[in-house]
Write a structure and sequence with these properties.
Layout (H helix, E strand, L loop, with lengths): L1 E5 L5 H11 L4 E4 L9 E6 L15 E4 L5 H6 L8 E2 L4 H19 L2 H9 L15 E5 L3 H12 L3 E6 L8 E5 L4 H6 L3 E4 L13 H5 L5 E5 L8 H10 L2 E6 L19 E3 L9 H16 L15
Parallel strand pairs: 1-2, 1-3, 3-4, 4-5, 6-7, 6-9, 7-8, 9-10, 10-11, 11-12
Helix pairs in contact: 1-9, 3-5
Bound molecules: NADPH dihydro-nicotinamide-adenine-dinucleotide phosphate and oxalic acid (OXD).
Length: 309
Amino acid sequence: MSLIFCSRADDPDEWRAAFAESLPDLEFRIWPDVGEARDVEVALVWDPMQEQLLRFPNLKLIASLGAGVDHLLAATTLPDGVPMTRIVDGNLTQGMREYVLLQTLFCHRQVSAYMAQQKQQVWRQLGQPFAQDRRVGVMGLGVLGAAAAEALHQIGFAVRSWSRREKSQPGVESFTGLERLDEFLAGCEILVCLLPLTPDTEGIINRRTLSALPQGACLINGARGGLVVEADLIAALETGRLSQAVLDVTREEPLPADDALWRAPNITITPHIASVTNARSGARLVADNIRRIRAGEVPHHLVDPKAGY
Ligand code: NDP
Ligand code: OXD
């Protein structure tokens, strides 16, 4: 059995070595050196592949190299009936848990304001709310959102979530559906975005939804740039509607040097590093799914192409 690896963002040698450990009988091929197309039964992909997957008549699994699949679904023609999986991995979840905690505390403890004061040699104590009085909302209570919400609850914040389906997570007040979106947003002094990018969530953070947040709220986007209407975000920062934004992701990545986001007030930008798939644990996960397929079982962590995540 052969696997074709297609990603400019990931190191193929690292993944090849990881598969040599997890599944030694797998032949690892790197795009575009596909070899005999009939041998390829697994595609491990990050880059969108347009029509290319249709070249492999015996494909049995399309495995995304990430947790998100928006770019693959949007720009790849999927062969009929071939399952697509995504990365759900404890290391990836831990990375996002850390990122969300770090950036929520950054906002909550007003680090940006103290850094600005330090630049001007100002020694002034700002009022500090208790964590239990700080309302933090997590948009998207999936694998990553649920872990982040749990960590935020454990550290003492008043946590709420927004998802499609009702959730019952201890210490997290659940809101669902567009009909309750504004009610959810009205109680988010810090809004953490961990939604997948789908046709339903594209541009969901926009002028209207930003204005539903409490005055001076903070936004943390650890999911996808396409969720945010960036011009509306910049305007909200400029007027003080938002007091802080933390973006790990942007519509265009890398963010061009002349993009206005870099110069927006009170913004922190990180280069899509909130949590990165680890080759060893990722390969173990994909290898396990390959074994399941060989055994005639359904692979874990299937994507629903209709829902878009
Ligand atoms: P999941 O698929 O596990 O969770 C998605 C959540 O979003 C679910 O709770 C789902 O609701 C909710 N959701 C989806 N569509 C809607 C909608 N229209 N309205 C309301 N809620 C909706 O995803 P993960 O937690 O694994 O990952 C989330 C995203 O994080 C990924 O898609 C990816 O884009 C991003 N990511 C970013 C990384 C980074 O380094 N910056 C690293 C890894 C991932 P329900 O539960 O009801 O289905
Ligand atoms: C992912 C990502 O989706 O790294 O896994 O963004």
